[in-house]
Amino acid sequence: MSHFAFFSDHQWPAMHPFGTVHAHGNLRIGAFKLSEWWSRAASKFLVNCKQETKAKVLHLLKNGKLNDRWIPSEHAISILASLKQGQSLYVQDTLLFQSSADEESAPLHITEDGIELVAHATELFSGLNKWLKDQTELLIEAWDLEAPNVPEHVTLLGPPEQIWIHPTAKLTSCSLNGASGPIFIGPNVEIQEGTHIRGPVAVDEATVIKMGTRIYGPTSIGPNCRIGGEVSNCAFMGYSNKGHDGFLGNSVIGKWCNLGAGTNSSNLKSNYSEVRMWDETQQAYADSGLQFCGVIMGDHSKCGINTMFNTGTIIGAGCNIYGGGFQPKHIPPFSWGGDGTWELHVFDKFISTARRVMERRGATLSEEETGQWQAQHETARARF
Questions:
Q1: Do 73 and 174 fall within a single domain?
Q2: 379 phi and psi angles, rounded to 5 deg
Q3: Which of 119, 150, 168 is the last residue of a domain?
Q4: I need a labelling partner for 271 at 20 to 30 A (CA). Which of 103, 194, 205, 217 fits?
Q5: How would DSSP label each residue in 95-162?
Q6: Which of these, 342, 340, 253, lies nearest to 302 by C-alpha position?
Q7: 313 and 236, same structural domain?
Q8: Tens digits of per-residue pLDDT, 286-313?
């Protein structure tokens, strides 16, 4: 699998609250990080191409950078194949591919037809239906999945060819319904008794789906998560816990988050009107264009038991939230508090907790990541 370089453009703040840790191809889109998706998609699309075309595209990709909001496709690869040596690529005024070759050519400008760019963090859940289906072949290969061979106490519903399970996954007295879309169960996943899953759903490595959980697709759950209660159309980036009862719908949960027991989110206003939510680029509330939207939570944020989130809530990274009643719809990064009282989360305490949390899952916080978090904390301090 090839490895490509990525850059972030001026539209990246629209991905708030997911900061630099997720930039440069590290954002999980569907079941893959964008960098993984591009590498696997390029390999798949180029396999039947002429050798000179394959060599040209791989040379371009190894001598340039891709926009880290650009979704790979066969159309995207064919456009790259049309580039000249040293030629960059634009769609309208947005740079898609930046050549780093010594010899520069005039850039190529194309229309938006067939080009898919992630424009906002809410698309990480609203785009899941298409993305998980587009990723089917790549997922089966990447996760080494097989047609299900499950014990009698596991119920399979819908077309059997829509369900794929890794042989190391452990399923106990649960139901999988692939009638609405594919279901992918990755290596060492545990699905406990009484769980019901309706596709399209992808569950990544070493995640535990706890007893009595109900998961409605489209939903993507990253590696090493703990999931319980009711989940509908959500994206979990990985290493996060929603291990207890409570409803979470039309939401995105970053890495290393924890939702306390009984946490609930509203995903639909009582008057069925369009959801307004915080816009980081405008530093104000704005119409989202969505009728259904729950919570967008940044990395390393946590909330206490029985927390209630209103429709269209944005929670920055590094927050610690507690208290009764509905929380504010915009909680800035590194906020600590609740019940109307908020203070800045002390950086040393944040890092200490982050290290302990990560060590429990066999992970470590690198110096590079620590530096990124410190920079984000300084930005939050200036705004607090």
A1: no
A2: -65, -45
A3: 119
A4: 217
A5: EEEEE--SS--PPEEE-STT--B--STTHHHHTHHHHHHHTHHHHHHHTT-B-----TTSEEES-GGG
A6: 253
A7: yes
A8: 999 999 999 999 999 999 999 999 999 9
